[in-house]
Design a protein that fits this description.
alpha/beta, Immunoglobulin-like, TIM Barrel, 2 domains, eight-stranded parallel beta barrel, five-stranded antiparallel β-sheet
């Protein structure tokens, strides 16, 4: 310990000057809100308070459209009396009022717009692409900024996890995999409508589940089929295959069955440790013209990620490890090339008599009897101000992002215990997005223990220099 402190103090004279910033890449954050019952302003204000720039809200087609197809109506008209936009308007207006940018996901067809009948969840079986396109036109018109005083929305996403059988069917017909081509039709028609309203609108495609299998399609396989690509190591176009995708951003939901470095068993699945493989595929598809977008650069976003916490889930991650893994997950995503990282969700879901395994207890706030009685979890601070510090052979690698994503100087501090991290050892400069990365040169013994934290107005959670081994753990407890 004395050797470590003397080494740090000896370097303090040169390290107090701000170090050069990392590459000018952002890590914006968002919170996905799948609970359409979240209509209270306080919930969206808390999302903003967590340092998030975005929130994902759901426009559930089957809830807005009439249960039975009318004989006479105009499905492209947002003012058609057969539509009920009440819940959607509440979500959108409150998100905008909180200063957030909504990513609007349109999903779940009414029964009359399905082209097949499947067991299980209604609204997912081969949705009629023309009907979907007409509803999209109504939604885009409603949130164009020129309708009824409602705000303009720029980010639009068609469907949820279309490679997963519980959200999109059919996935398989004999040896064929029809879902990528069916989704491509929905996606491209959706994009045509969104772009016709404004060239500045952005379409987010994919939003894929991390795992495939017998009943679902592996996400990398799904993406290659959709974009007419082949090859894992060096993706290239399939000769004679004319398909392409219209989108500006691609999204993946890389839930892991372990820690943030976990990789999938199947080569075409994408857990958090595999995100770089999806980014490589998207970049190759863009290079070969299989993605149609006015933007040369097509970002990849993580639009859902989380672990259940303990409490309340007895099988969730204890709060200290959850906080550490959350910062590591955000660092790993940024390092792989992800520009935007969404957490699921702002508050724990209500159980309503269900077992913990069937509910989501990954909120940044512990759910109370009312939203006013919710309590913040420790992981909230890790999401707002992510910071990591890893021992290396010749020192310590640090990375983080300021709570408000703004640039400035960040003070790195050290302490021997979690509660006493107060010795300044370095000052670093962020990039223009508030992201910082640096290396502290020092000699450390194998048994060295200590904590580092970052301070930018407020302090990050202390991060232990002791390595935590990865282990198998389901994301939902």
């Amino acid at each position: 310990m004395a050797l470590f402190l003397s080494t740090l103090l000896a370097s303090l004279a040169i390290s107090t000057a701000p170090q050069s910033a990392p590459a000018a890449r952002p890590l914006a954050t968002g919170v996905t809100v799948p609970d359409t019952g979240l209509v209270e302003q306080k919930g969206y204000d808390r999302i903003k308070g967590a340092g998030a720039k975005y929130t994902r809200v759901a426009l559930v087609w089957s809830m807005i459209a009439p249960p039975n197809k009318p004989n006479q109506w105009d499905p492209t008209n947002p003012a058609d009396p057969h539509y009920d936009w009440t819940s959607a308007d509440h979500q959108v207006v409150r998100a905008i009022r909180a200063g957030l940018i909504p990513l609007v996901q349109v999903n779940t067809a009414p029964r009359w717009a399905e082209r097949c009948v499947a067991k299980g969840k209604p609204g997912i079986c081969n949705p009629h692409p023309v009907a979907f396109q007409r509803f999209t036109r109504a939604a885009v018109r409603r949130y164009s900024g020129n309708f009824g005083g409602l705000p303009r929305l720029r980010y639009w996403e068609p469907w949820n996890e279309p490679n997963l059988h519980i959200f999109f069917k059919p996935q398989r017909k004999g040896k064929k995999r029809p879902s990528p081509a069916l989704y491509r039709n929905l996606l491209n028609r959706f994009a045509a409508v969104v772009k016709s309203s404004s060239s500045k609108n952005r379409v987010v495609g994919g939003g894929l589940a991390p795992l495939g299998g017998t009943n679902s399609t592996h996400p990398l396989d799904f993406t290659r089929r959709l974009l007419c690509m082949k090859g894992r190591k060096n993706p290239v176009p399939i000769e004679g295959c004319e398909g392409f995708g219209r989108f500006d951003i691609w999204a993946i939901n890389p839930y892991t069955t372990g820690g943030p470095t976990t990789t999938a068993t199947h080569p075409d699945d994408v857990q958090l440790g595999d995100v770089a493989e999806m980014i490589k595929l998207i970049r190759a598809a863009r290079k070969y013209g299989k993605i149609k977008s006015p933007k040369r650069y097509v970002p990849v976003w993580v639009t859902e990620f989380s672990w259940d916490s303990k409490p309340p889930d007895p099988n969730g991650l204890r709060m200290g490890l959850l906080s550490r893994w959350t910062s590591e997950a955000m660092f790993g995503s940024w390092k792989a090339g992800v520009d935007n990282f969404f957490w699921l969700s702002i508050r724990d879901w209500p159980r309503e008599g269900l077992p913990f395994s069937e509910t989501i207890q990954s909120g940044l706030w512990l759910r109370g009897a009312t939203i006013a009685k919710d309590r913040p979890k420790r992981v909230l601070k890790a999401f707002e101000f992510p910071f990591v510090a890893f021992r290396q052979p010749r020192g310590i690698l640090i990375w983080g992002r300021t709570p408000n994503s703004k640039s400035g100087r960040v003070t790195i501090r050290f302490g021997r215990s979690y509660g006493r991290v107060n010795r300044r050892i370095k000052v670093v400069r962020t990039n223009r997005f508030g992201v910082f990365q640096s290396f502290i040169r020092t000699r450390l013994g194998r048994n060295f223990r200590g904590f580092l934290s970052a301070k930018y107005g407020k302090a990050s959670l202390p991060f232990s220099l002791r390595r935590v081994r990865n282990f198998r753990h389901p994301p939902f407890g």
